[in-house]
Amino acid sequence: MNTIDIITRKRNGEALSRNEIEYIIMGYTAGEIPDYQMAAFLMAVFFKGMNKEETVELTQIMKNSGDVVDLSRIRGIKVDKHSTGGVGDKTTLIAGPIAAACGVPIAKMSGRGLGFTGGTVDKLESIPGFRTLMAEEEFINQVNEKGIAVIGQTGQIAPADKKIYALRDVTGTVENLSLITSSIMSKKLAAGSDAILLDVKCGSGAFMKTQDEAETLASLMVEIGHAAGKETMALITDMSQPLGHSVGNSLEVEEAVEVLKNQGEEDITKISVNLAGLMIFLGKKASSRDEGISMARKALENGSALEKFRDFVEGQGGNGNIIDDTSLLPHSNFSVALKAWDNGYVSEIDAMQAGLASQHTGAGRMTKEDRIDLSAGIRFHRKVGDKVNKGDIICTVFCNDCEKAQKALDEIKKAVRIEGNRLEIPSLIKSEVYFDEKDRCIVHRIDHDS
Ligand code: URA
After folding, report:
1. Strand 334-339 vs strand 393-399: parallel, antiparallel, or unpaired?
2. Which of the residues 110, 126, 182, 183 is marked catalytic?
3. What are the φ/ψ torsions at residue 432 (nearest 5 degrees)?
4. How far apart are CA 49 and CA 54, in angstroms?
5. Counting atoms of ligand 1 from 1, which one is nearest the CA of 183?
6. Claim: this prediction has a pTM higher than 0.85
7. Are 182 and 25 in contact (CB under 8 A)?
8. For a tag on the chain, would you pick the N or C end, based on fewer CB atoms within 10 A?
């Protein structure tokens, strides 16, 4: 076999065999195939695509390139949840404790992430004392005792993906269905849970801009999970404006606490309850999706999810008092406000643009070596559809550097539109994707937000 032939065959739109895919992926991971050939291969895949069989093979090969976590010592059906990424998405911090409060063991390895804010692990590290590094034994004990643990990725989970993703990031080859699917699912399958719930974002702040594209990605990921013998479901959710009211690491922890106190914004509360409800269903603690969702709502209302969050934080060495006093979280030195320049209604807060603004505050990394400012970010006081009078504060930018604050303010201005008439608010939960009892992959569009 030879690398040039494989690149040429893919460039010509031919389907590759398992052996060919393995040759190029493992050769690159081992350092035997150089970046320039892998970049050419990725670009050929980007333009010519891969069929489902090739995507299944690619996922398995990347999964098997490293460790496959064994969670069998944890009692019960372990459910993992993954979001394809969005601005202000702190749902893991909320849905995880809710599902755990309803008896579903959550043993999650999470990433740091490049982009608009840190990943879940960065957000958790804004809690004083919180440890995201744990030995395997301690991780397993924490899940058995407290019902939930979230740690940074340890060992060698899908090292092939790690190397390839870094190359995709700098060669314009991220946004391809097969490459995204295999990248995400290889890590999910290696992480050892029994069932997987995917939150596939759609809108300006997501990889997938339209509902159709998001459904196609979700269906492929659900099919790959199913083919690997894991029960897998997906929700397609809105990412046209930031989720909830905060973007930034400690700001998002603060907001997660508000939601767990059942005092959160409607959008983030609703998505978190739906995700947790499906996790409860996948974990077989509810006999239907609706029952799972109503159990999740109850756990939020009766305070058991909040207490589970406290247990989880303290179990990992964090200061649980942040729940009663969020001023114990890191806070920035400066804040500047964006005020409404007109009377009217907020018709747009472009998620992508808001994410870029957040990155300017220092809340996100531009490169993986960057240090995150855990206290920086943006808090929105208005959402799409809200009425504003000239001079009302639309959002506050938090920052530790005046120059960065000004840059972030300039960026956030570009994200917001005010119009005379109130426009329709985009629906939050757009579709669900699952396998039915006849083993068919179903995409169910949800017509109205309930
Ligand atoms: N997240 C991943 O882990 N991989 C992708 O390709 C895209 C998002």
Report:
1. antiparallel
2. 183
3. -125, 150
4. 9
5. 4
6. yes
7. no
8. C
